[in-house]
Design goal:
3-stranded antiparallel β-sheet; 21% helix; disordered N terminus
């Protein structure tokens, strides 16, 4: 959490703690839903994400269990220096994220809060970025998505190639 000295008042320093961080983003609208594409350093996003796993909650969960070996393979691939994963991680901003888009600066901001983002797609890529010895920026697509998006999204990709999940 960055701390910024704003000024002085009666010889006392006035300190404001910045709880949000902004990143340049590209706005896309699809079927009246707004999505934002950006890249975020893995250390700025990983700790604020969570996954709804099928094995932990069969009713609400939709992600497979984390395959550590797969995440390790992704981390090793990224660490080589020539490895690149151009596809984005899809995140759903939760209410506590205070997710916002600034049209003037064309940037998104969010609060660094526990469970601020639900991972809809790309949990293995996200874990791979986190495990990687080289600190990368993660391609991210995010927005405040409609409640049934996770179920719809997971159903739409169910037939997709496992290498794409």
């Amino acid at each position: 959490m960055a701390t910024e000295v704003i000024g002085t008042a009666s010889r006392k320093k006035v300190v404001r703690t910045r709880k949000t961080t902004a990143y340049p983003a590209l706005l896309m609208t699809q079927n009246k839903h707004r999505f934002y594409f950006t890249t975020i350093p893995v250390d700025d996003i990983f700790n604020y994400c969570f996954v709804a796993r099928r094995d932990e909650d069969p009713g609400a969960g939709f992600q497979r269990a984390l395959n550590e070996s797969r995440a390790d393979d992704i981390a090793a691939y990224l660490a080589v220096g020539t490895g690149s994963i151009p596809s984005n991680v899809v995140l759903s901003a939760q209410d506590n994220a205070n997710f916002a888009y600034n049209r003037k600066t064309k940037s998104i901001s969010f609060a660094r809060e526990t469970a601020a983002f639900l991972v809809l797609d790309g949990q293995h890529r996200l874990w791979g970025y986190q495990k990687c010895s080289v600190r990368h920026r993660v391609p991210v697509c995010s927005g405040q998505l409609i409640p049934d998006t996770a179920l719809s999204f997971s159903s739409a990709t169910a037939g997709a190639s496992p290498s794409l999940n």
